[in-house]
Amino acid sequence: MNKNSVYWGVTVGLLAAGVLYLAKKTGFFEDDRHLYDEFESR
Amino acid sequence: MRKNKAVMIGAGLANMAAAVYLIQEGHWNGDQITFYSLDDHGSNDGAPTDSVTDEYWNKNHPMENRKGYVARGGRMLNYRTYVDLMDLLDRIPSATEPNMTVAEDTHDFDAKHRTFDKARLLEGGKGIVNGSHLGLNNSDRLHLTKLIMMPDSDEEKLDNVTIAQYFSDDPHFFGTNFWFMWETTFAFRVQSSAQELRRYMHQMIYEFTQIEHLVGVNRTRYNQYESIMLPLVNYLRAQGCHIVLDRLVTDWEFKDTTMQDEITVTGLEMQNTVTGDTEHVTIDDDTAVIFTNGSITDSATLGDLDTPAPENMDYGAAASLWKKASEHFYDLGNPDKFFADRAASEWTSFTLTTKDHLLLNEITRITTQVPGNALNSFISTSPITALGHKDINMSIVVHHQPHFTSQKPNETVIWGYFLYPRRRGEFVDKPYIKMTGKEMAQELIGQLSKVDPGPGNIRDHEAAIMDSIINNIPVHMPYASALFNNRAKTDRPKVIPQHSTNLAFTGEFAEQPYQMIFTEQSAVRSGEIAAYHFAGIPMANLVKTPRYDKDLKTLAKAAKKMFK
Q1: I want to staple A23 with a disulfide (CB 3.0 to 4.6 A). Which of A28, A30, B184, B354 is the partner?
Q2: Which of B2, B149, B514 lies nearest to residue A41, judging by beta carbons?
Q3: What is the topology classification, in CATH, of domain B121-219+343-477?
């Protein structure tokens, strides 16, 4: 039971880390709200 | 920096949008805004031929036959991504439909005339090609996926990389149905910028699932001058804007500063193209200058039924002025990237007017679809590219009729184009650029005859069709795809350049985040940014841009489509 939990925990953890890595790598979480800051009237 | 007056150089869609936002969001009066321009339609045109023969680029090319209509380019809209354009069009009354805004007019027409292309690709011996099979292999899919997955922050990795270079180890890509449809839907060429292709893959990602039917395409009721530009001109004139035409702005005066990097325009030199007189306009501290720094229809020339369009080697009015500004300051881009490489940017179009519906009915029979629904591209039956691939010879757009308000019920107007005008015709043995309007019509009938399912063949009616042609206007546009030319991100000036106190850049040759060019969307948004900057409106108020490239459902659909 314990061994099974560890196995699934590691698998889910690795998958989550992979998805997060891919999302970060592809800019999925990039915040584009700041992109227009440079055009603000000062 | 906030201003209270604006001088617009160029009266195309981008600057007209800027004026509308200054008036409606900045609460300016129209008389605070003055346009100086050669004409009032920019690249979004369409007119009876005899009404444009006196325009600046046509003056030195007198035409024998001035009948029929001309639309140098043709454009398709897309509600889902052209959010700024639709916002603009909802702010102005239609020029043709009473009690409707232009957006309502367009929605009304489009809802009753949905695009569903049934013959996107045609090929001799095969007829209508099933474009839903994109024809991609694993290497093609991998290359496209890499583009889709590349984040905005890594975009510079594609600085100065052409599409041909990006796919250099995967030449198969250029022989796929996907490429045939993508290149002709958006007018990309193999020498075009891979950076811009990346932006299209992001912003048009959902088109993957429907590219063979173009169901995402929306169209205006009439040509884009009467349906978009004329309402803008009417609105701005009614608001009191000064629209001064027949002016070629030729040079700048800038403020001299110690560090030589402050960009402040103090004066403009211009030529009255009717009288030839030189004029000077002083720009005071309270005036913004909003400059559309390139036009894809600059230096475009017209032919007629019996005359090919001559080639005009002029650098272009807007680009020449941009070049002078870029010689003063280091961060205003490199116009030569776009306007000194015609081999990468030129194409030739034609606008064919007939006195009856014979040709229209034959095209309807062959393509199995009603007018107004389609962009039909003809694939060559033998290899014609340097890589030894087949490619598209020519494309046509059969508009919903009438396409012009003054068009007679019996008349038909059809538009078409050659993306590679130096290639030779199959039925008229000369380069497309050298063809008369009559020869282009013969080439079109030839291409249609190859895909005609019968019984009989369109060539059986060739004499009658040729007799029905009132005029066919070839238009050579040396810079038609210049906005796609290979470039680095710094080759276009930012809409508001660093250290600028009163100069903004608008249109398709200005750099702004995420936006793909060759869309009315990017043109309008650049004008909106400039207006908000000079009116002191926070950029948070800009129209919100959807990000389909971050929508998991859209990405999943695109991934699935790649395997068809």
Answers
A1: A28
A2: B2
A3: D-Amino Acid Oxidase; Chain A, domain 2 (3.30.9)
